[in-house]
Task: inverse folding
């Protein structure tokens, strides 16, 4: 059997190339001899090999084959253990490096997060303060807007009431001031829609042309066709209403150019009486220019008159202005020269002072004339 085995070994070795390892030789021999070896590892790291198939091997060969497989398995296991240890050591160093990198990144992220939280808190405080300021400003603006709207509405209402009173007082059938007040919107626009940025005030004077019909009074807007005299009369009445509606009309000045132009006698009297009554009741001043055709009616209702005299186109300058004042004790039907009115109101002392002043002025003029002749 030994001779046959050696012969087979020599045959197999002769058939193999030199590049084949001893393990491969043995593996092929075991395959040819139908030898199957099982290797198991115990808990005490000892390796046991057993021949699982019954062959005609002798005890020495069997023992040698079993010992070889046990030694080979033990060597392989040690190699695997050493390789695993080196791999574990390398892996530990890699893991340590990764942990260090991750730690630095975590610390950086933590610092960045703290800075972000601090900045967020600061921005939140600024936002809260700005929001509170915006809310306070918005509330203040809304209060101002409501206050302005209330004042404007009250003023227009007062003018409307005064206009109605004046119309009734002068024999009319009343009137009013129809108005609309549209303040700008303070709300944010939606869907990029434009919003009004200014006040819109619409006022339409209206007056009644006929008595009420079953308690209903029809007011006609001023832009409707009307008699020119009635239109001018209503215009002056509206101006008076605006002045009288003021809480403190004293010291205000109403200037009217070409007073009474285009008015008939009846309307002229009503306008002049209304102006005089408004001046006396409120303390305001009415200054008007009139033509010659109504000067007598106007002078009778004025406290002071300036009469401008235009001689002709040949003269470069007008004649000296004649100044008159109303009579004493409020008698507007009698006009006297302003100088006489001043001296009579100031008494003898003031009159004597004016006379002395006139003498001084006359003496100075005579002296200048004398010097001129002497030269």
Result:
């Amino acid at each position: 059997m030994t001779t046959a085995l050696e012969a087979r070994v020599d045959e197999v070795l002769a058939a193999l190339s030199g590049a084949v390892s001893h393990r491969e030789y043995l593996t092929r021999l075991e395959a040819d001899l139908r030898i199957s070896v099982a290797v198991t590892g115990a808990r005490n790291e000892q390796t046991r090999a057993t021949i699982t198939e019954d062959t005609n091997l002798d005890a020495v060969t069997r023992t040698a084959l079993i010992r070889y497989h046990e030694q080979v398995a033990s060597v392989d296991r040690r190699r695997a253990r050493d390789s695993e240890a080196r791999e574990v050591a390398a892996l530990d160093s890699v893991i340590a490096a990764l942990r260090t990198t991750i730690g630095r990144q975590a610390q950086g992220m933590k610092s960045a997060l703290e800075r972000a939280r601090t900045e967020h808190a600061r921005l939140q405080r600024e936002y809260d303060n700005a929001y509170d300021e915006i809310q306070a400003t918005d509330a203040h603006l809304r209060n101002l807007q409501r206050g302005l709207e209330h004042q404007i509405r009250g003023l227009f209402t007062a003018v409307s009431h005064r206009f109605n009173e004046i119309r009734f007082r002068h024999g009319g059938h009343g009137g009013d001031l129809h108005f609309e007040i549209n303040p700008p919107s303070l709300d944010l626009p939606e869907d990029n829609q434009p919003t009004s940025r200014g006040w819109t005030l619409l006022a339409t004077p209206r007056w009644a042309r006929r008595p009420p019909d079953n308690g209903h009074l029809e007011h006609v807007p001023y832009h409707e066709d009307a008699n020119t005299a009635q239109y001018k009369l209503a215009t002056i009445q509206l101006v008076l209403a605006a002045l009288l509606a003021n809480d403190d009309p004293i010291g205000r000045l109403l200037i009217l150019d070409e007073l009474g132009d285009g008015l008939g006698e009846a309307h002229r009297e009503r306008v002049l009486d209304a102006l005089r009554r408004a001046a006396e009741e409120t303390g305001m001043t009415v200054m008007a220019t009139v033509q010659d055709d109504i000067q007598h009616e106007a002078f009778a209702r004025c406290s002071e008159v300036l009469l401008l005299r235009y001689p002709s186109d040949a003269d470069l300058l007008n004649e000296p202005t004649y100044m008159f004042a109303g009579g004493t004790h409020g008698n507007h039907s009698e006009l006297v020269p302003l100088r006489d009115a001043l001296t009579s109101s100031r008494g003898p002392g003031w009159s004597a002072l004016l006379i002395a002043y006139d003498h001084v002025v006359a003496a100075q003029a005579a002296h200048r004339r004398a010097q001129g002749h002497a030269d």
About this structure: The longest strand covers residues 200-208.
